[in-house]
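Q: What would this complex look like in 3D?
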Amino acid sequence: MVPRYARPAMTALWEPEAKYRIWFEIEAHATEKLGELGVVPKSAAKALWDWWATQPEIDVAAIDAIEAVTKHDVIAFLTWVAEQVGDEARFMHQGMTSSDVLDTTLAVQLARATDILLADMDALLAALKTRAEEQKYTPTIGRSHGIHAEPVTFGLKLAQAYAEFDRCRQRLVAAREEIATCAISGAVGTFANIDPAVEAHVAEKLGLTPEPISTQVIPRDRHAMYFATLAVIAGSIERLSVEIRHLQRTEVLEAEEYFSPGQKGSSAMPHKRNPILTENLTGQARMIRAYALPALENVALWHERDISHSSVERFIGPDATITLDFALARLTGVVEKLLVYPERMQKNLDAMGGLVHSQRVLLALTQAGVSREDAYAIVQRNAMKVWESAGTLSLLDLLKADGQVTAALSEDELEEKFDLDYHFRQVDTIFARVFG
Amino acid sequence: MVPRYARPAMTALWEPEAKYRIWFEIEAHATEKLGELGVVPKSAAKALWDWWATQPEIDVAAIDAIEAVTKHDVIAFLTWVAEQVGDEARFMHQGMTSSDVLDTTLAVQLARATDILLADMDALLAALKTRAEEQKYTPTIGRSHGIHAEPVTFGLKLAQAYAEFDRCRQRLVAAREEIATCAISGAVGTFANIDPAVEAHVAEKLGLTPEPISTQVIPRDRHAMYFATLAVIAGSIERLSVEIRHLQRTEVLEAEEYFSPGQKGSSAMPHKRNPILTENLTGQARMIRAYALPALENVALWHERDISHSSVERFIGPDATITLDFALARLTGVVEKLLVYPERMQKNLDAMGGLVHSQRVLLALTQAGVSREDAYAIVQRNAMKVWESAGTLSLLDLLKADGQVTAALSEDELEEKFDLDYHFRQVDTIFARVFG
Amino acid sequence: MVPRYARPAMTALWEPEAKYRIWFEIEAHATEKLGELGVVPKSAAKALWDWWATQPEIDVAAIDAIEAVTKHDVIAFLTWVAEQVGDEARFMHQGMTSSDVLDTTLAVQLARATDILLADMDALLAALKTRAEEQKYTPTIGRSHGIHAEPVTFGLKLAQAYAEFDRCRQRLVAAREEIATCAISGAVGTFANIDPAVEAHVAEKLGLTPEPISTQVIPRDRHAMYFATLAVIAGSIERLSVEIRHLQRTEVLEAEEYFSPGQKGSSAMPHKRNPILTENLTGQARMIRAYALPALENVALWHERDISHSSVERFIGPDATITLDFALARLTGVVEKLLVYPERMQKNLDAMGGLVHSQRVLLALTQAGVSREDAYAIVQRNAMKVWESAGTLSLLDLLKADGQVTAALSEDELEEKFDLDYHFRQVDTIFARVFG
Amino acid sequence: MVPRYARPAMTALWEPEAKYRIWFEIEAHATEKLGELGVVPKSAAKALWDWWATQPEIDVAAIDAIEAVTKHDVIAFLTWVAEQVGDEARFMHQGMTSSDVLDTTLAVQLARATDILLADMDALLAALKTRAEEQKYTPTIGRSHGIHAEPVTFGLKLAQAYAEFDRCRQRLVAAREEIATCAISGAVGTFANIDPAVEAHVAEKLGLTPEPISTQVIPRDRHAMYFATLAVIAGSIERLSVEIRHLQRTEVLEAEEYFSPGQKGSSAMPHKRNPILTENLTGQARMIRAYALPALENVALWHERDISHSSVERFIGPDATITLDFALARLTGVVEKLLVYPERMQKNLDAMGGLVHSQRVLLALTQAGVSREDAYAIVQRNAMKVWESAGTLSLLDLLKADGQVTAALSEDELEEKFDLDYHFRQVDTIFARVFG
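A: Here is my prediction, written as structure tokens for the whole assembly.
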């Protein structure tokens, strides 16, 4: 976790105190059910909840001190709680194993983290939708291979991003379901010393579903799927970031990240206005992707479990969610404040002497009876001249002067092929498909 | 693709001929709809399908020869088809762009590949279920950290694997939905020169859904999600493989891969029987995981598209699906024929002098009024003696001789704590949760 | 391995026949030494080499057929050789284990593959050097963040690539040393049944060094380092490819991949000339990077060895080296034939109204006694106006009209700050550092 | 960075204060040289160093506050220093660009971090050597595929680890050389506004070598190689950790991590002694490996540079080095205090009824004139009986009763083949190769 790429709400989720609060809730809910089942006195849960109602502070340092001796975190916590609550606390954790607490806690943390990410995603989607509708019919050149292809609108670019992040949102919902499970099944998952009803109770109270079969731990294929999903989302963040970086290139300059008054682009070059936010997001995307790898390697735990996953998750649990939260929020800001330059878009669109209309001419020739091969050769011949002139020649002019063309198409027909609006007839259809 | 790790049905999907057949279907279906729309003569599609009805062979070498000149694969194919079908073929591909064909073809290939993988998965699930039910109550030691923990049954181990692969199956279904989309939207996805109805028609005929917004290409977040899902499944394959490798260790030997009569384990050591299939699967899992990475990097294509994804997909499209198909089938065979040794399981279970029952004694002491801390110390004190004796001492005997224990628990109560069946009371519940 | 991304010399190295030839050499050299040591009759090696001198074909199918029964590749091979050579062949492989053959063979294959890669690298370096010297003083704009910064020369760009690939060459030499080791140490590496002199002899004959301590296998940290090095080289290939893709963008167009006469850029858009080779290389770089991952996971084999690395290496051994060989050769071709457009470079350089000289003015103001903060503000104020004019205003003109500037600098002094050659005074120094 | 997996000396290197100290040194050394060259007054460097000699505290919060306005870290720092030092400070950073400072600082940090890692490595090597010599002739079973193979000594296992980490040490030295370069070359690396002598001076003072050609930034192939090397080392850490985890398995128990008196293995199972340190290291190795990936993706920066690498390096610079430092130190502790159980090793070695000697018998039969095929069949036939008896039958006894064996070998000859020491005759040779 890098503090400058972290936001407080997400970070708080991963603080020791937040973790201990969830531990307590799990233990207290479990004790409550154990009381109902007659396994422990009902007074035990009451004592725990009574203490909790006093809104006690969690003394992280004290718990750490105990752990330094026991070298076992859950025992350290239980010992500390017992010191606070008194004798009744000895009934806590009956028939449970540490992982019952740890894994269920991780589920709660990841589920809550995902709720934040879903809210982030909603904000990003809202920003994309607003800007897409605003730019719905702003003409701009579509590019394949970085080369001018045919006209699109800037709204379509943003609609594409919307559709992509909408898929990411759905994937995030699915990923949340993957990891929102509860296991209170004892040392090897057999419920040997604890009734499954305890698990059901704790799950319900914490908004989780019971894990159908656990083996001391919740199986790590779930977490692998979770972090792999974050990695895919990172890819989409990178895609939109790279798009904006391209648009801000000096030679393109169709859009720019907002540049605040006091900001300095370069200590050496006062004229610089750099797309640093999206470059920064590109790097963050690389990190979020990287965090998926150890999660994938965590799946193959030995037998009923080994603990190799644990050190990994101490890193990637916070780091992946905190960074993704930050990245989504930063990207939302970039989209909301993005400076868009329609005049420059039009200028770039016109720069190639009408080459972007070459396909329509090709089709028209074919439909006028010229063979596809011949039509291609005719258009390419003229297009190459325009290309080599760097847009100073006009494709329309050249075609008007080409006998093989005029034999097939009238001047009016030719000119109609260079109409920009022709390309945008389906924009409304596409927007309806994307935004419903 | 490594031939020895490839099965014919999956491999055939990725042969040039299979690809060209899909190309033809896409072009012919599109031409058909274009005919209905009056864009091209209806006779065009008829000519194409008439030729197709003759079940022509696809001359891959001839197409390759044309591509060597044009350096463009789709144009080479169209040229070859035109040579076969004649003049009417010139109406093919009207208003389409190469990627309309290529991306939709990849969708068909991946969807069909996934159908094979789903069938593989069903076979694996069936094998796991059969063996799980067969071994439902076979006692075996559960291990955490590679260390004996408490008893489980071998059926539970297999049920866990079933539940995990059942989740993998659901993920595969979701992954198939991700990539089964069709784009026939023209050079930059605006449908400038082609009616969206063509896309809808082709999609329906090929069992795909139309891509809501494409940009010459289908967005690669879909493929990233697809290959990331295969990577997660690889993790589960590795987990079960590693489990079997552990069980076959000389010192454990609770199960073994089937060893056929003519087989030689080692050229040097005639006594060896090695878990080579599951070791082999472990390596294959690493490969399938690796293939997800370039798919994740493919997402951020430049602007409306660049073609960097293409070389990646020429590798990972076949390699990931062929290897996963092979791995699932191999794993199914391993599970079906796995040699299980219940006597050895029981022997290992008994080897630690009853240490595996230590938790139950701990709980009993606590319930008998001993503080948790004291109870832990008492049990650990005796357990450590047994541990250091390497199982030659009996925990039950030591406890019977410990005054602090006998002050709290009678001999009968103590003995009841060493009952194996106690641990299996919830096996039926768990099986019901897993198998329904 | 994708056939279209494979060249014959490298591919041949990984064919079964090439592998079996190395196997034979290892076995025959070992038998020779065993004969000298008196462990086996000297006639054994003679019989083997006599047969070899007949230049026999390797019947791969026959060996495969034997393996189908024995399920052991080395035994199958030995059996087949024995069928060819006769009775004397039974002395082969005395005291050796399969891995002695397999691992030493992999070392030979990787060493030979690296020799090809080194030759590829030399060709690339030669091409870069030639083009760098040719373009040594071609002015072009340097860009940071995709934004115009200050002038460089195109030769400097190529010199940077040269320096980077020269480092890659050195890394490749180091990587070759890592894997060029020989192990003939028996079943668990103790030389229990084979004299270390055999290993020394085979190593010398095959141009390898003896592995100081092996454990049936050569340790896989060596291979991890090897494939990780290839991954780093892939990054450098990607960097130069991305540079060229950027330069070929329509709006930049300072350089282009060579475009052959018959070539078609797009089936739909006849005007397209796309940087497909470098896009293709970008994707290949992703693959070569991906292959490092399973090699890294291969390191932690169990105990003296498990065989999980083997299936991985059947993939990545050929795939990584074949793809890198192809990529280096393709990149060399791109560099050799790259179309360079100095006029366009100059035009782009001039496009920002002289903004690229802003830093020199800043420095001059500071040296003339203006505080750094004030100087920055003055220059930025004027630079921003030029920036917003998209280069139609001239920075020099604006500065001449700015009282705070003229108070510090004379008109002559100002004009001198806009001299392009000023930036190239150290080009010769840098070239000397790079090319020696 | 996870605090519990971090050690103070390494962590301190990455604190803001340490970074700012290096920034100051670079700026002051550069100003000094600029003074010598007559570019700035000599008094400027004097003022800087005079202030530095007062051992000023770095007010990180104050610098952060300035950065919040300027959004530029180096400018914020320069501004703060100027506030402290006064007017002379305006000569700092003349002709330099931020990256001159940032990249050279990263080089210093990584070089210093590597010095710590080298010291860690030395400690680990020393521990391995000590334990290897101590256990040089402790017999233990060698295992391939997790299956008993032939005898080795525990010292050989440790010597293998020593040799592997010794290679890692050499790689670390090479990796340090890769990144220990200095760039003070200005905005695009042309030295337009700064004499190369400044770079040479700063490099010498900081123990770096000048980067032959930089482009505002030091090329990131260097850092990719660096982090890839750490990833390889992580693999070796994982290998030794996995070995120890295997040895500590209940059924094997040939070695154990040291278990301190107060420690609790499990909150539920008082008898547990788990290999948690090596499991923990396994997870950390996964993380260190993962950090190499974004470093590899960082290589392909756009043109002369983009800043996407920066956010990545804010994560992996500290995280990879801090985690590796911790991991090496932890592993050293594990090795130093490892509990080794020679009796259990001997017991396991004997457990298979002498099967581990099967190869020697095979060889003896071959040398006595039996064909290799027949010999293999004879030995396997008897070996399989022993195998199926789980070691209760003795291979030697069975062979003595097998007519085909006794026809070829006398009883004495047979018995000699079961001599353990036979396997250790080359241990001394191997130790000499490893330890010199």
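A: To summarize the key features: The first strand of chain B starts at residue 139 and ends at 144. The radius of gyration of chain B is 30 Å.
Q: Very helpful, thank you.
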